[in-house]
Specification:
globular, 31% helix, alpha/beta, binds uracil, single chain, Rossmann fold, 31% strand
């Protein structure tokens, strides 16, 4: 599946707030939280096999309803910036598992290196992964995260991202045609320091007021 750029006006509006350099850290976190939960609610519609039927009684009648079977859902925030997208999603799926991963970019080579991997050791056919990575610049970090989840045995992987560069989009669509990337916007330029332009700056620094 391709990179899917949302058409949701609410997401676009929150992204505009996040892009603005006058936006302070608290407002920036609110913007990323809202972008995360709105993109997550779009992505979850593409995930198959997550609902279960159940009979309940309303005050008036017995009826059949559907629930999300949250125990199959893994939310994967990529540290640090991915944490900013987590709070709203946790309210939507409080029983989902949260598996943190951390990679840092070597500032000279721009290569990603692991420092934390809390991915599960065992998964089932129904395990479904939602990776929170606000900025996909070179595609190096997200490629490594996807590869580790694929090695676990899953292709039910959905990427939730604020901004992706045009060059990362091309690479990822070619490398992972079975994975969908739900993004707020696609930016044209990746500068020599690995920043997305116009972008929104360093998402981790802005979220954590550094
Ligand atoms: N990570 C960020 O936080 N911002 C960019 O522009 C690129 C990677």
């Amino acid at each position: 599946m391709p990179v899917i750029k949302t058409k949701n006006d609410l997401i676009e509006s929150w992204l505009s707030i996040a892009r603005d350099k006058k936006t302070n850290s608290e407002q920036f976190r609110a913007a990323m939280e809202n972008i995360g939960l709105l993109l997550f609610s779009e992505a979850i519609n593409d995930a198959k096999g997550l609902t279960a039927k159940q009979h309940i009684k309303t005050p008036l009648k017995k009826t059949q309803v559907r629930y999300l079977d949250q125990k199959h859902i893994y939310i994967i925030p990529v540290l640090r910036a991915g944490l900013s997208m987590l709070p709203g999603i946790r309210k939507l799926v409080p029983e989902a598992k949260v598996a943190h991963v951390g990679l840092y970019r070597n500032e000279n080579t721009l290569e990603a290196h692991w420092y934390l991997d809390k991915l599960p050791k065992k998964i089932t056919k129904r395990s479904t992964f939602f990776v929170l990575e606000p900025m996909i610049a070179t595609a190096g970090t997200i490629t490594q995260v996807i590869q580790r989840i694929v090695i676990l045995g899953s292709v039910k992987i959905f990427i939730i991202s604020g901004l992706i560069s045009e060059s990362a989009k091309k690479k990822l669509e070619q490398k992972f045609p079975m994975i969908s990337f739900h993004v707020a916007d696609i930016d044209p330029i990746l500068n020599q320091n690995g920043y997305i332009v116009p972008g929104l700056g360093d998402a981790g620094d802005r979220a954590f007021n550094m």
